[in-house]
Design brief:
340 residues, alpha+beta, Nucleotidyltransferase, domain 5, Actin, Chain A, domain 4, 3 domains, five-stranded mixed sheet, 11 helices, 27% strand, flat
Length: 340
Amino acid sequence: MLSRLLDVFSRHLAMDLGTANTLMYTRASGIVLNEPSVVALDVITNKVLAVGREAKEYMGRTPQRIKAVRPMRDGVIADFDVTKNMIEYFIRKVVRRLHIIKPTIVICVPTGITQVEKRAVIEAAHLAGAREVFLIEEPMAAAIGANLPIHEPLGNLVVDVGGGTTEVAVITMSAIAYAESVRVAGDAMNQAIQRYLKDAFQLVVGENMAERVKMLIGSAAPLPQALVAEVSGKDSTQGSPKVVRISDSHIREALRETTNAILAAIFKTLEKTPPELSADIARNGILLAGGGTLLKGLDQLIAREVRLKVIVDSDPLTTVLRGTGRTLDDKKFFSRVYIN
């Protein structure tokens, strides 16, 4: 009776606390927040000046007194206090009025998360105002979001390419049979583009520019029609402003090491998968989710190299959050997927 009363007066939230973006979901309204996981701080007073989309625009453009930081690194908390402030800001933005009872939150985390990192996420959410905190692994949430039959004794292979980590997992009977978590994903792609432009063109660009280039002309496989873009930055030898013209083939070369690391994680997972589950995967194929899978041609590259059918979720940016949110609708039915 008490738990039912608490459910009536509280606001249930699902959170995809990502390295690149934080998304939130409520049962009543669906996806209610999608903002960069960035916080702008006054370095002297340590006061939070901006969070989310506004703070991301500060990156690379701030005076010495202000710094824009990303408190999540490789899918886990790198700066506890800043993460707590960020979670609190997002909760208050979603839950606009003070509720009698604090909200219950389900948060998705990488499969490779340690016990210390789990405690840090839970503590940050409690300090930010959560009543109860449940954790779910990202590939499990992606499978639920894509409506895979996770409760059945069938093998399903999920590849979730996020901002900080790529999660590759075989799921059966509401559990992960085997998983690989590699800290190579969207952020690593941006950094690879920055290194390549500096080495090949003596051009220094910021993280935001590298991300824009990736989204505009980046690809993992050859494209039907070549793409080109002008990229602005700073000459690494003279320090003066510089503009260079680059093509999708340049960015494909820049990303080769990153895409090879993702392929290696998939091959290792398949190697460790029991034969019966492998047979299921051969029939069902591979599900791709996460913002990193929006890289042009990544699905084609994986299908060609792994020789399996590859299915990209209809909205890969929100697959994990949708699955996390679905568990809120029936916590008893999905109770076995929580890892705390």
